[in-house]
């Protein structure tokens, strides 16, 4: 008897943002295979008897390789188990959900997708930044700051001149090169820019300023990963009351930052 693998998006961090269907699948689970950035309070929603298997990846350190995760999901399902593959955000937004779906389908293992709220939208939203706004941006573009190959680079000329909001995820390590790539290809250094760390978590923090000075602001305020980087005029709508910042500081160039 074959089981079922549910690829469930856990949302950006706040457990209340898990979908109703995601909650139901966790409550029915025989095994939960989860990532590093998942809020561990969600694991308590599964039955006490359910297996809980940590396959989290750290930057440059993947103790459980993706092929092994694929095989694990297939093996558990082959035992007739209801398996929840719990990934932060949405499993199809720079997650490995697409690879896992293809692997399971190729082996005729029952699999479903339970979408989650992606941090690419929830991160800006948590500090009052709408990714689209009819006065500022009619589109948004989500870009990964982490590339499979060392020489992989975004299409900077296209991004620098794109209409709309640019949202970078997994980009803190490459923030200086993101800024340099955009400015060198024509993006105004004065473009409003924000970085939101651990969006929707209790220790959420954020800074905002202009593109030219965001690297210095991030360093001065100790902002690190996981964070979402937002570049565009919509950043001007950021609500400081929601940012987790307790103060502001200027650098003489219109940039502002704060620290929780």
Give a written overview of the molecule.
- The chain has 260 residues and is of the alpha/beta class.
- Helices cover 24% and strands 21% of the residues.
- It contains 7 helices and 12 strands.
- The chain has helices at residues 20-28, 66-78, 97-106, 119-126, 156-160, 175-184, 214-221; strands spanning 4-9, 31-34, 51-54, 82-87, 111-114, 140-144, 165-169, 192-197, 205-210, 227-231, 249-250, 256-257.
- The strands form 3 sheets. A 5-stranded parallel beta sheet has the order 3-2-4-1-5, with helices on both faces. The chain has a 5-stranded mixed beta sheet with strand order 6-7-10-8-9, sandwiched between helices.
- β11 (249-250) and β12 form a beta hairpin.
- α2 packs across α3 (97-106).
List the helices and strands and how they pair.
Layout: E1 4-9, H1 20-28, E2 31-34, E3 51-54, H2 66-78, E4 82-87, H3 97-106, E5 111-114, H4 119-126, E6 140-144, H5 156-160, E7 165-169, H6 175-184, E8 192-197, E9 205-210, H7 214-221, E10 227-231, E11 249-250, E12 256-257
Parallel strand pairs: 1-4, 1-5, 2-3, 2-4, 6-7
Antiparallel strand pairs: 7-10, 8-9, 8-10, 11-12
